Amino acid sequence: MSKSFETRGPAIADLSQRHNALLVLDVDEVVLHFITPFRELLADHGARLHPESFRLTGNVREISTGAALSGHRLDDITEQLYREQEVRQRPVDRVHEALDGLSGRADIVFLTAMTPSHYDSRRRTLDRSGLAYPMIATERSKGAVVAELCSRWSGPVIFVDDLPPNLTAVQRSAPHVRLLHFMANDVFRPHLPALPQGAESATDWPAAAALIGTWLED
Predict the structure, then answer these.
(1) Which residues pair with 180 in a beta bridge?
(2) I want to staple 161 with a disulfide (CB 3.0 to 4.6 A). Which of 8, 26, 155, 209 is the partner?
(3) How far is CA 119 from CA 13, 110, 124, in A?
C-alpha cells in the first residue's frame, strides 16, 4: 500500500499565470528566518545549538548537562516553532524589495516542506509580512512538485532552497530548472554539503535577485 503524502495550498492547475517564467522559493531560511528563532526557542528549553555538522540531530545540547537532545525532542521543538511562527519568524533582510522587482518578470510560488497542518499559520505569517505569493506546503518530494509546475510554465524556471538535497531532487526530476542555494543564517555554511552540478549560491537577497535576473534573461 503506497504512502499518502499530505499537501495543502492551491492546486497547481489553479495557480494564476501572468508570466512565462516561474520562480519557486522555499520558505524557511529563504524568505523567513528559521535558525535564529529556533535558537531562541532552544534557549527557552535550556538547550543550545552547536553547529559542528550539517544537521540538527546531535548538534543541539542541553546547557546544564551537555547531553544531545534526541531527534524526537527536536521534532517537538520544531513543531512548537511552527505553531508559534506568527510571533517568532520574521522576513529575511531585503526579501521584499527583491521579490517586488522579480515579480514583474516571473510568477512566484512558495514551496515549503513545513508540516502541512501548519499551513494556515504560515499563510497568515507570510501575508502579514507582505509576502502574499501563493504557497504549497507538502510532504511530497520537491522535485516531483517542481516537475509538475514546469508543465505549466514554458519559460525559465528557477528553484531556490537552503538544503542541497532538495536542489538535487529538483535537478533529478526537472533537469532544465536553474538552481540557487540560499541560506539566510550562516552558522551551517562551513558544513554545507556539495551542491548539485550547475547550482549557484547567494548569501543575501540583493545578490540572489541579481543572479536570478540574469537567468530570466536567458
Answers:
(1) 160, 200
(2) 26
(3) 19, 12, 9
**pLDDT of 25 above 90:** yes
Any domain includes 2: no
Determine contact, residues 142/113, Cβ cutoff 8 Å.
yes
Confidence (pTM): 0.96
Positive or negative, the CA dihedral 20, 170, 132, 215 is negative
Give the end of a domain, one of 43, 67, 87.
Answer: 87
Backbone CA torsion sign across 166, 167, 168, 174: positive
**For the residues of 7-48, what is the DSSP string, one character each?**
EES--GGGS---SS-EEEE-SBTTTB--HHHHHHHHHHTTEE
Contact 208, 188 (CB under 8 A): no
1 found inside a domain: no
Helical axes 35-44 vs 71-83, angle rounded to 10°: 110
Report the chain's terminal Cα–Cα distance, integer Å.
44
| 52 within 8 A of 59, measured Cβ to Cβ | yes
pLDDT tens digits, 32-67: 999 999 999 999 999 999 999 999 999 999 999 999
- Average pLDDT score over residue span 158-162: 98
* Residue 180 shares a structural domain with residue 114: yes
Q: Which three cell numbers stand for residue 182?
A: 540560499
Number of compact structural domains in the chain? 2
Mark whether 41 and 147 lie in a shared domain.
no
Indicate which CATH number applies to the domain containing 162: 3.40.50.1000
State the residue range of the domain holding 68.
35-87
